[in-house]
Design goal:
The chain is of the alpha+beta class and about 110 residues long. Helix content is about 40%, strand content about 15%. Helix 2 packs across helix 3, helix 2 crosses helix 4 and helix 3 crosses helix 4.
């Protein structure tokens, strides 16, 4: 069954209403860049978690507050078509992914 947003996917700018309300910050952009860099350094099918990107951006400081912003960064990248969100080896809709998920290159 086709999702409501699929017919307009090319015009989608935000992955969810939460992303739409919250503008990106320099920290958000740093998390997106960290995700892209980490994925580029791994094999084609290897993935990362939001925690991996949070640790890179925190650079030795407490990274726990960056985990959810890293997950939002992954959702934005998925909405842009740059990455896939995976749970249990299946690609899932980024706006409905719950709990821990992996991020991999498209």
């Amino acid at each position: 069954m086709a999702q409501e947003w699929e017919r307009d996917w090319d015009s989608v700018r935000y992955c969810s209403q939460g992303c739409r309300r919250r503008r990106t910050t320099p920290e958000d952009e740093a998390l997106e860049a960290a995700i892209v860099r980490l994925l580029a350094a791994r094999g084609r099918s290897a993935g990362i978690s939001g925690t991996d990107a949070a640790r890179v951006v925190a650079d030795g400081a407490d990274w726990s507050a960056l985990v959810e912003p890293a997950r939002r960064a992954a959702r934005r990248l998925a909405a842009a078509g740059e990455v896939e969100i995976v749970q249990g080896r299946r690609v899932v809709d980024p706006s409905t992914a719950r709990d821990e998920f992996r991020i991999r290159r498209r």
